[in-house]
TrEMBL record, chain A:
<dbReference type="InterPro" id="IPR004789">
    <property type="entry name" value="Acetalactate_synth_ssu"/>
</dbReference>
<protein>
    <recommendedName>
        <fullName>Acetolactate synthase small subunit</fullName>
        <ecNumber>2.2.1.6</ecNumber>
    </recommendedName>
</protein>
<dbReference type="GO" id="GO:0003984">
    <property type="term" value="F:acetolactate synthase activity"/>
</dbReference>
<dbReference type="InterPro" id="IPR054480">
    <property type="entry name" value="AHAS_small-like_ACT"/>
</dbReference>
<keyword id="KW-0808">Transferase</keyword>
<dbReference type="InterPro" id="IPR045865">
    <property type="entry name" value="ACT-like_dom_sf"/>
</dbReference>
<comment type="function">
    <text>Catalyzes the conversion of 2 pyruvate molecules into acetolactate in the first common step of the biosynthetic pathway of the branched-amino acids such as leucine, isoleucine, and valine.</text>
</comment>
<comment type="subunit">
    <text>Dimer of large and small chains.</text>
</comment>
<dbReference type="Pfam" id="PF22629">
    <property type="entry name" value="ACT_AHAS_ss"/>
</dbReference>
<dbReference type="Pfam" id="PF10369">
    <property type="entry name" value="ALS_ss_C"/>
</dbReference>
<dbReference type="InterPro" id="IPR027271">
    <property type="entry name" value="Acetolactate_synth/TF_NikR_C"/>
</dbReference>
<dbReference type="InterPro" id="IPR039557">
    <property type="entry name" value="AHAS_ACT"/>
</dbReference>
<keyword id="KW-0100">Branched-chain amino acid biosynthesis</keyword>
<dbReference type="InterPro" id="IPR019455">
    <property type="entry name" value="Acetolactate_synth_ssu_C"/>
</dbReference>
<comment type="similarity">
    <text>Belongs to the acetolactate synthase small subunit family.</text>
</comment>
<dbReference type="InterPro" id="IPR002912">
    <property type="entry name" value="ACT_dom"/>
</dbReference>
<feature type="domain" description="ACT">
    <location>
        <begin position="25"/>
        <end position="100"/>
    </location>
</feature>
């Protein structure tokens, strides 16, 4: 009743966020039509959501469907909003939170894999060391000269992070990563 | 769908012809627009027919708001037509306005020929890119054979589910090209967009049981009831009658329940009534029907209705749990859900006891007795609240539609003008667009030529789309602009007073035009009143005029809009008019600021 005695400060009330943010992986099935990726990305930037990883490719040619895999983080209520907002986009067919689904299935996480191409340049002894380590990581040599290797490596993001870190002192020149492809374990489809 | 082996010759036509045919097939009678290079083929078709009337506006923003007013007063889709580049960018404000207030709007825009797209051609802009975040969906049509299908789909998406604006961008070469017209499909082809109308019966049953157990219930309704159609308003009234619950509404939902109804608590929110906000705060069961817990409604979110269990009916899943956690969400169309709710309430084996809400109503009546909309009357100057009270008294019982601009006058209009029916009140709620009211009134008048259409305006807002007076004159639309002229951007001034030490930075309307002469310059009628004793007579004169009128109503310059939930405060921390004396308001103002008054 004595509201006017305290300065109100702002036109909007900004509540401090108390819930903890977590990282989730979403699978989004969309019509493969012009601008659909812009709609999805625009939603994330427009509403201030985070994107940690994003991959997109046509998965069902006849049905003109693409599958977008997004790794995002937020509080549980933000993650619920992200899913609901994605479903509002007209060419979006389905949104599945793979992380939630994995929990429902009694699993720790969905399967998440990434491919990376890693270029390492070096001479002499360092080359032997590079190859030995690559073998340990099951990285395949896809191109080479006497000065360089390009490795193809597949695995969890953490494994690739580690491989890249190890290659750094051995002459790491260039890295290209695909972002995460993900799917739930078990016989059930999306 | 058309069988390609059995093509009728009259299925072949130009893109521009397809546009007109598709509009007719979707029941369009009026479109609001402005021509330009990239839409000339469509304008040529408009010229050669007379089933669809084109209303020429003076600025594309006016076309959009007019289409919004048309849509909101009829329940139909509003249609606007603009050219490429600046035509499309000028349409952005009404598109976002329609998005936030869930108004069905189809905007057709011209685009440079497909071969020039991306070349920075004259009057080119990335219309689809620019309008992507301010539409429900949009399309760039590059193939004339897809044009009809896209327009049909545009109308379906605009008006189904949670309604909203859509844009169809049509390059000029597609307008000239010949292609096949496909009729409106019986079943929509797009499988990814299939909004659900029916609510989950289990959830509705749980909601009804919770409602029946309530001792301190409240119905909090919004624009979704109006959008759902007249049947939803009827069912809402039936539900109120059956349950005896008190009911409040957002700015957008006014009229769904009649203001004369005995359960009506008035509008809620920042400038809503004391009784509605206190009831929201203290209730034990809240039923939110077609509203979205907007920040102007909730006040401080972590103090919002702390002890209630909440039921939320909404057609848009993203509205559920967005700002406020609810206990029973019901996804579906308000009309359909209310129908089930009314039926299940009637079927309850044990109706709530007669006196179950008696104490609650007694409490509500004590809050009501505070008369939170009261103000000090003056016999020397016209109080803005008094002006609106008189406007309401002298227009009630008539076929009246009210639109508003944005600011203090808008809040006073919501407080003092009473609505008995839905679709009678057009205002920019979500986006808060100054300049909305006058073009919206034009749209309403086009749809209801015989009605009394009044734009309640402020002296600042009205200058944002005043050019549309020329439109009103051209089409003999006798719209009345009732300006509450206090020579300030009143709401800005009020906030500067409350929050910024009364430093009235740029909120005084300098170099005010002579509104009477301005009206006359356009060929309209100008009226002026600054004497409370003359007001009734002048308002009656305004109503009697069968031409557009600008009524310059000079009101008390420094009146503020109360009650008010100051930002960051809870519903039960309202600033009431009897407490908001000059002295009380000035308490928040430092001594230096006070000297500047």
């Amino acid at each position: 009743m004595n509201a006017h005695q305290q300065p109100t400060g702002s036109a909007y009330f900004i509540a401090p966020e108390t819930a903890k943010a977590e990282s989730h992986t979403l699978s989004v099935l969309v019509s493969n039509e012009p601008g659909v990726l812009a709609r999805v990305i625009g939603l994330f930037s427009g509403r201030g959501y985070n994107i940690e990883s994003l991959t997109v490719s046509e998965t069902e040619h006849e049905a003109h469907l693409s599958r977008i895999t997004i790794v995002t983080n937020g509080t549980p209520s933000v993650l619920e909003q992200i899913k609901a907002q994605l479903e509002r986009i007209v060419p979006v067919h389905r949104v599945l939170d793979l992380t939630v689904r994995a929990r429902e299935l009694g699993q720790e996480r969905p399967i998440e894999r990434e491919v990376a191409l890693v270029k390492v340049v070096g001479h002499g002894e360092r080359r032997a060391e590079t190859l030995r380590l690559a073998e340990a990581f099951q990285a395949k040599v896809v191109d080479a000269t006497v000065e360089h290797f390009i490795f193809e490596i597949t695995g969890k993001s953490s494994k690739i992070d580690q491989f890249v870190a190890i290659m750094k002192p051995l002459g790491l020149m260039e890295v290209c990563r695909t972002g995460i492809a993900a799917m739930n374990r078990g016989p059930q489809g999306m | 769908m058309t069988d390609s082996n059995n093509q009728m010759p009259d299925n072949q036509m130009t893109g521009a012809e397809i546009v007109l045919r598709a509009l007719k097939d979707n029941g369009v009678e009026h479109i609001f627009g402005y021509p330009g290079g990239a839409v000339l083929p469509i304008y040529d078709e408009i010229f050669q027919q007379d089933e669809i009337q084109h209303i020429l506006v003076r600025h594309e923003q006016g076309a959009g708001h007019a289409a919004e007013g048309y849509a909101r007063s009829t329940g139909k889709v509003g249609v606007m037509l603009v050219t490429s580049g600046p035509g499309a960018t000028n349409a952005v404000t009404p598109l976002q306005d329609a998005l936030m207030d869930s108004i069905p709007l189809v905007c057709l825009s011209g685009q440079v020929p497909t071969t020039l797209i991306g070349s920075d051609a004259f009057q080119e802009c990335d219309t689809v890119g620019i309008t992507r975040p301010c539409t429900k969906h949009n399309w760039l049509v590059k193939d004339v054979n897809e044009l009809a299908g896209v327009i049909h789909e545009a109308f379906r998406i605009a008006q189904t589910g949670r309604p909203g604006p859509v844009v169809v961008d049509i390059p000029k070469d597609v307008q000239f090209a010949t292609g096949t017209y496909t009729p409106k499909p019986e079943i929509a082809a797009n499988i990814s967009y299939q909004p659900k109308k029916e609510g989950d019966l289990k959830a509705i049953q749980a909601a009804v049981e919770l409602m029946a157990s309530a001792r301190r219930p409240i119905l909090y309704t919004g624009g979704g009831v109006v959008n759902s159609g007249p049947e939803a308003s009827r069912l809402l009234r039936e539900l109120v009658h059956l349950t005896g619950f008190p009911i409040t509404s957002t700015l957008m939902g006014l009229g769904a329940y009649p203001a004369s109804g005995k359960n009506w608590l008035g509008m809620l929110g920042m400038h809503g009534s004391y009784e509605s906000n206190m009831a929201m705060h203290d209730c034990d069961v809240m039923v939110c029907i077609g509203a979205r817990f907007d920040d102007r409604i909730t006040g401080r979110i972590n103090a919002f209705s702390p002890n209630s269990r909440k039921i939320h009916i909404d057609i848009d899943p993203s509205s559920i749990n967005k700002n406020v956690h609810v206990d029973i969400p019901i996804l579906g169309d308000v009309g359909s859900v209310l129908e089930d709710m009314v039926r299940l309430w009637r079927a309850l084996p044990h109706k709530p006891a007669k006196g179950q809400t008696e104490d609650w109503w007694a409490q509500i009546n004590r809050w009501r007795a505070r008369k939170s909309f009261s103000y000090k009357h003056s016999s020397d100057v016209i109080m803005p609240q008094y002006a609106l009270q008189r406007l309401y008294e002298l227009t009630k019982g008539r076929d009246t539609y009210i639109t508003t601009e944005v600011g203090q006058h808008q809040m006073w209009a919501a407080q003092f003008i009473e609505f008995e029916e839905p679709n009678r009140w057009m205002t920019s709620g979500g986006l808060g667009t100054m300049g909305y009211g006058f073009p919206a009134a034009i749209g309403v008048q086009v749809a209801h030529p015989g009605a009394l259409v009044i734009d309640v305006a402020g002296d600042a807002s009205i200058q944002m789309c005043i050019q549309e007076m020329s439109t009103a004159i051209q089409y003999n639309l006798p719209v009345k602009i009732f300006i509450l002229n206090n020579q300030y951007m009143g709401m800005v001034r009020q906030w500067q007073q409350l929050l910024h030490g009364n430093r009235l930075s740029n909120s005084y309307t300098e170099a005010m035009p002579d509104f009477v002469k301005l009206a006359e310059a356009y060929g309209a009628i100008g009226m002026y009143c600054d004497d409370p004793k003359e007001l009734d007579h002048k308002i009656e004169e305004m109503i009697a005029v069968k031409k557009p009128v600008i009524f310059d109503c000079r009101v008390a310059n420094l009146a503020n809009c109360f009650p008010m939930i100051p930002s960051g405060k809870a519903h039960n921390e309202m600033l009431l008019p009897d407490e908001a004396t000059d002295e009380a308001v000035a308490n928040a103002i430092d001594a230096k600021g006070r000297q500047l008054v």
